[in-house]
Queue: 2 jobs
Job 1
Amino acid sequence: MTLSFHDPILVLTSDPQVNTLVETMLRPEGFDVKVVTLIADAKKTLNEGFPRLAIIGEKLPDGSGLTFARELSDITPTTPVILFTYQESTTMLKQAIQAGVMDTFTLPIRGDDFLKLVRNGLAIADRRRGWMQKETRLATANLRSQMSDLETLSRLSQSITSKLDLDSVLSTVMDTAVSLTNAEESSLLLVDETTGELYLRASRNFREDTGNVDFRMGIGDTLAGTVIRTGQPVLVDEDNLKKIKTDYLVYSLIYVPLKTHDRIVGVLGVDNRNLKKPFNDYHVRLLSAVADFAAIAIENAQVFSNTDNERARLETILTKVQDGVIILDAENKVIFVNQGAREALSLNGTEPASDSDISNLQMDQIMDLLDRGSSRAEINLNEGRVMDAQVTPISNVGTVITLHDISMFKELDRAKSDFVNTVSHDLRTPLTTILGYVELVERVGPVTDLQREYIRHVQMSVHNISNLVNDLLNLGRIEAGFDKHKEIVHIDHLIGESCETLKDQLAYKGHRLSVDIPPNMPPVWGNPILLAQVVDNLLGNSIKYTPPGGQIFIKAEIEGNQMILQFKDTGVGIPPMDLPFIFDKFFRASNAAGEASGTGLGLAIVKSIVETHYGRIWVDSVLSQGSTFNVVLPLYEETKSSPTTGE
Ligand code: ADP
């Protein structure tokens, strides 16, 4: 409800004399008068507006005038009340003062006195209203300025969340600090972690006359230092300026601490040097809010820069590392190809666009690897280069393919195999000759028992050497991939044949053999001679490395599209320290010496064969208790032609 200096005068009496007086005195004077005789009617008029002045009778037909006067002063304190009474007793006057009544009058009434009374009341009313309007204007202006400050702060917070560039955020911080506090200058000083000094990180109008580049200050006994140490803001004005040491002359100044978590990393300051304008506590509060935003911005920038540095570091490592690295996302789109991979795949020049499909790399062998779901494979590249490709699925990223150049090892391995093959081959003929002649010795004349024993030794040794030569030649052939022929192979048949072949050895050692093969075993796709050798070697070893009277189990199972074979024995077992080398060429476990002779090539051959059939082999063994050799082979799938039908 707005108040106006033209609001009416409310007259509430039931006395005809007063009413007549009002009519004859006030109306001709131009006063707007509203005359009512009941409190209820007077209340109704309040809905339309508050009266400028109220003349109220002490006694009214519907209640006490004093009580209404009290109510009225609660509703509209700017409306003075003049009380009309028939008898002015001290008690009544006291009550009137307590009810906030301005003045009283009684009968008889003189016109002049009444007019003076009303004029006086109106003057008081106008003073009260004038004061109230001034106060309201002031409060509104204050509210407006605080709202504008809040808007400025909210803009600052938006700029902090929307920008990552610290310089630009701090520039906004400086502008905001100056505009919110109406300061001449603002500065943001951060603590240098290494020297402990404060250095200027951002400023507005700060020391522009002296140049503020490289501005630094100690935190010893300076004002900013005190803020850093105590974590409390300081407000300096004319009164306490002389007592405090600032390192340059200012008229007024505020420093507030910049806190990140529980550490104080710097101070935000505003000051007036030329203008003699003081700051107040409100400015301190505003500047503290700005400092909080600045601290968040600095922390954000630090986190971002740390992450960014870390990312850049990782990218440099990945880029510079000699091995090839290809990173694909979950849909096999290329995310990253490093220099090593570019060189290996001769991609330089034909840059694969980031986000392009892996098929664009034109690397059939890598595609093949991914299609087959293999975790590693050797990839043959141009000019005889061979890469060991490893595929690692990484959750939330996709797939990482690393390419390691193993051409040199392959070359060495080939040279060694060539050498071994040549030597083995060349040894075969003289060995056969030796055996032939040794056998002839007994036939050409009588030999003593001792000579016969020596001949047996020679025969056994030559036999061992020819076993070794045969194993070496076998291994050479498998590694060179000569036996590429593949067909449908029923492993259960091979197991049956192997048990038949080795039944004499089983019987000789008194082992019990149990074979557990489900009926209608599906076949695998492979080379029957090589797979037979796997079964022979594993069963042969079980017999050989199990002391007489042991037990041997052969078990076959189907799991998904794989066949799992187990050769389990109750033999000598393999010492844990030997387990990692058990499939290496020429390796014999430390506890094998006392057992039957061997070349240390059998398991290497088995492993080679299993791998050329895309299978896996591993061993579980407990020393002195027994070993289980596990072989997993993919089943033959009619619908899918085998990846290596290379007959
Ligand atoms: P070889 O039997 O000719 O020594 P292998 O390559 O077949 O060579 O085996 C390598 C080594 O693995 C053996 O010398 C032996 O120490 C160990 N080994 C193989 N099979 C068994 C088994 N079933 N139980 C215990 N040790 C075994």
Job 2
Amino acid sequence: MRVRVPVPLRAASAFGTPSAVRDEGDGMAASVTVVDHPLVQHKLTLMRDKARSTQGFRRLLNEIGMLLAYEVTRDLPLEPVTIDTPLEEMEGRQIQGKKLVLAPILRAGVGFLDGMLSLLPSARVAHVGLYRDPETLEAVEYYFKAPSDLADRTVLVLDPMLATANSAVAALQRLKERGAHDLRFVCLLAAPEGIARFQAAHPDVPIWTAAIDSHLNDHGYIVPGLGDAGDRMYGTR
Ligand code: PRP
Ligand code: URA
């Protein structure tokens, strides 16, 4: 299901197969793609269950990461390449340009990394260390390390949770300051409030998510959600 809405978010109405739509400078934000593949939805339901073990939660996030990697790369441009099969020369196709960058937002974004790297083994990795201040819900940066040539690469920013979007907005801002301009955001769950804020701040960046939940509670948690993704993934609390 693909949703493309005016900035800021007003309605969620357009449907189609998962694929990205760029901001075309027409006052519309880039698309929000809900990856409603049955495997993704099944695994997400298992993850939401509060009885799921730390080990199970981590494994499922990893598996969904792999499936989301497949969807978020669906429209990458290809270029012709001449190769020799054992029988003859032929023109194949390969992904154009430099290797992708995967940019997990620490900690929970790391949960997507192994699954994505299993499909994109030569991707570069940028780490964006942010935590959400529990009182203000503002994002606080504590670490940043990225390849120097972000301007030449497609960057997939990874974080399971898009709640207030403070973390995502700050991460994208930081990556843009370092030259990135071809960005995609991948999450597991998004709140409508977070999507609106994200699109107001970064209307050029499309979003892929497995679900859009109902709302945020008074503590900025996604409802019904799955709780604190980092704590559930690492067994902290
Ligand atoms: C969580 C989550 C996101 C952020 C989302 O991280 O992984 O990064 O909250 O919330 P927001 O959209 O309101 O910013 P948290 O700050 O709990 O850190 P952690 O991943 O280290 O647990
Ligand atoms: N961060 C989480 O881990 N979960 C939420 O519901 C919101 C922010």
